[in-house]
Specification:
This protein has about 250 residues and is mainly alpha-helical. It contains ten helices and no strands.
């Protein structure tokens, strides 16, 4: 990493840590959601409709996906669009640093925040509600990495085309709720009707939720879910690079 890139990353880190709202929704709220749901007695009981699994077991990976979607769709695009609106990217272009360094810092910081949130969710789920640790840690990390890449790429598209932070927030909100639905926030993907589940599993949220669930049980995720995440990440990343506007 070049010296200007390191300087930008340090600066952006300080700015990011000064945003308590973003920190709460990305890093604290998913854990709080697990605590709230885990406090419901029936959610801690095995369910025949879930093949003996508990509702709280399913909501741990969903809460992790909530963090990824919050960071990628709600938080990061607004920062990127705000820099465009304030002509920050154009001013950075006149320095030894590159505008890309500024954007890369946002990807790194928001991705790191999601990783911290995921660790907190898993720890609280394990300690407080006896949610088993992922049976296949390697597969869990793989699916989470691909899901985060897909979400960040989609957020990159929003932040890359929105002319202002306000418009970015509006677009992000429109995208946020469908993504949370497909990730299973309102109803775990496993409980959806077959036809709806088949469609949802073609989305990044649905594929990630199913892949994380399989990895949690100690299985390698289905190649179908991995492929869906890879395709979404590559297509969205390509669109973000193609349509990104510096000014």
């Amino acid at each position: 990493m070049s010296s200007p890139a390191r300087t930008i990353l340090r600066t952006e880190s300080k700015l990011f840590l000064r945003e308590p709202g973003a920190m709460f929704w990305i890093m604290a709220f998913p854990t709080l959601l697990v605590v709230i749901l885990g406090s419901i007695p029936s959610f801690r009981d095995p369910s025949k409709g879930l093949d003996g699994a508990r509702v709280i077991d399913l909501y741990v990976p969903i809460s992790i996906l909530l963090s990824a979607i919050m960071a990628s769709i709600q938080s990061m695009p607004g920062v990127m669009a705000g820099y465009r609106e304030q002509r920050v990217l154009r001013r950075v272009a006149t320095t030894p640093a590159r505008p890309f360094d500024l954007l890369a810092a946002q990807y790194v910081l928001h991705g790191a925040a999601v990783v911290v949130s995921a660790v907190l969710v898993l720890l609280v789920g394990r300690i407080a509600f006896d949610v088993k640790s992922p049976g296949s840690a390697g597969a869990y990390v793989l699916v989470l990495t691909l899901a985060l890449a897909a979400c960040l790429a989609i957020g990159g598209v929003i932040g890359g085309v929105a002319p202002t932070a306000r418009i970015s927030t509006a677009i992000g909100t429109l995208v946020f709720f469908p993504m949370m639905f497909t990730a299973g926030l309102w109803a775990p993907v496993q409980t959806m009707p077959h036809g709806l589940r088949t469609v949802v599993e073609l989305t990044p949220g649905g594929a990630a939720a199913r892949g994380l669930d399989q990895a949690a049980l100690g299985h390698w995720p289905s190649a179908h879910f991995v492929l869906v995440l890879v395709v979404w990440a590559l297509v969205a990343a390509g669109a973000a690079a193609r349509y990104f506007r510096w000014e």
